[in-house]
Amino acid sequence: MKKVFYLNTCDTCRKILAQFDLTDWELREIKKQPITKEELTEMHKLTKSYEALFSKKSTQIKLRDLDVKSLGEKDFKELLLDHYTFLKRPVFMTDKDIFVGNDKNNVEALRTFFGVSE
Fold first, then answer.
1. 56-84 pLDDT, tens digit each
2. CA distance linking residue 79 with residue 103, whole number of Å
3. Rounded CA gap, 112 and 11, in Å?
4. Which end of the chain is less crowded, N or C, counting CB atoms within 10 A of the terminal residue's CB?
């Protein structure tokens, strides 16, 4: 299994995806096709944390008046399943590896994984 979860309206996601040959990867646009409970469970097995998958930049945090510091793993799981913008993206996932988000270290790890140099 090789999947990429991304948001089509996110320039950063598109920029990162464009760097790699994703011919044999399943591309999942999370607004049109939200992540399933099973997929979230698979992601959690690899990250060992729902918080690691949670985007603290989601506009829904302010709209829902959420205090992120007071949230627990169960809350993160429920929110991730409730609204697509809570997923830190993009997420590249294989049976053994997961790369979550767009921070510099993650993108570097992806380049190494794909064997791509800058």
1. 999 999 999 999 999 999 999 999 999 99
2. 22
3. 22
4. C
